[in-house]
Amino acid sequence: MPWCEDCARYWTPNAMNDDGTCPKCDAVVDAQTDEVVAEKAPWHFKLMIVALVAYLGWRVVDLFM
Ligand SMILES: [Zn+2]
């Protein structure tokens, strides 16, 4: 979602001006959608690593039992 600092609100891409500026104050709006998605990725990645380590640890224990 494009975020306007000056108006302190999100704009839908359709609501914005054709040149990518804010429809209310004409400031250049940051479209940080990709960065937000990238910031969420490590949380799932860490969980996957923890699950993988736990699984492999269990397999090693199971191997010697
Ligand atoms: Zn604005």
By helix and strand content, what is the structural category? mainly alpha
Approximate strand percentage: 5-15%
**Tertiary shape:** rod-shaped
The domain tally reads 2
Strand/helix succession: EEEH
Radius of gyration: 22 Å
User: What is the overall pLDDT average?
Assistant: 84
Helical fraction: 40-55%
Number of helices: 1
Distance between the termini: 53 Å
The oligomeric state of the chains shown is single chain
Give the bound compounds: zinc ion
How would you explain this protein's 3D organization?
This protein is mainly alpha-helical. The chain has 2 domains: 1-31, no CATH class; 34-65. Helix content is 48%, strand content 11%. The protein has 1 helix and 3 strands. Strands 2-1-3 form a 3-stranded antiparallel β-sheet, with no helix packed on it. A hairpin with a 4-residue loop joins β1 and β2. The radius of gyration is 22 Å and the shape is rod-shaped. The mean pLDDT is 84. The chain binds zinc ion. Zinc ion is lined by residues 4, 6-7, 22, 24-25, 27.
Throw out a few tags for this protein.
3 strands; mainly alpha; 2 domains; three-stranded antiparallel beta sheet; 11% strand
Spell out the blueprint of helices and strands.
Elements: E1 2-4, E2 9-10, E3 30-31, H1 33-63
Antiparallel strand pairs: 1-2, 1-3
Zinc ion binds at residues 4, 6-7, 22, 24-25, 27.
